[in-house]
Amino acid sequence: MTFKENRELWLQRVEDFHASGLTQAQWCQTQGVGVTALRYWLRKLKEESTDEAPEWVQLNVTDKAVNSPTDASIKVHVGSFRIDICQGFEQSLLLDVIKTLMVLC
Hints:
This protein is mainly alpha-helical. The protein has two domains: 49 residues; 42 residues, no CATH class. Helix content is 59%, strand content 11%. It has a two-stranded antiparallel ribbon with strand order 1-2. The longest helix is centred in the N-terminal third of the chain and has 18 residues. It is elongated. The two termini are 29 Å apart. The model has no long low-confidence stretch (mean pLDDT 80).
């Protein structure tokens, strides 16, 4: 099995583990997989995801938001987290928050 094939297999296994709601030990026992191997791939895939560039999405601005700049805000959802950004926000703070959330998701 090539590294790429093994990575795809473990990517699916990690998704299955997260969806299972089981502890690492319980899931590994039911799957016949070593806990050490699961922990390695959890760490490896998490590191890979933090190295990737963030995905850009289209932002649609309504006329209402354009016409009332004092109430203007943007709501950003990252995983289960929500960020409300108001006019005059500090860009470096937003970048730090997003980087932190990417590690958590």
